[in-house]
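Service request form, structural biology core

Requester: graduate student, group of Dr. S.
Request type: structure prediction, single chain
Budget code: on file
Notes: please return the result as structure tokens.

Sequence provided:
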Amino acid sequence: MESMGKKKPRPRRSFTPEFKAEIVALCKQGDRSVGQVAKDFDLTETAVRAWVVQAEVDTGDRDGLTTSEREELARLRRENTRLRQDVDVLKRATAFFATETR
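Core staff response, request fulfilled:
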């Protein structure tokens, strides 16, 4: 018996920037609501709203990090994590060789 009220989670999908731009343009036309556009294209309303907000940030209509700034921030965070790991390895190697030479 299927559990009542429980939905299976939707698999994670990825969309091209062109597709997102088309969806945002449809939302901005005003013919249909964001919810209706999302429903028509089998998307979550939350995702479509996030795309609209990000498009507004990218055009300067809203404050926040642009798409390119978000990408750079993610890249810098990954690099920072890798560098911290490198420093940790070097500290351990230094401690190891310091005890070996005594």
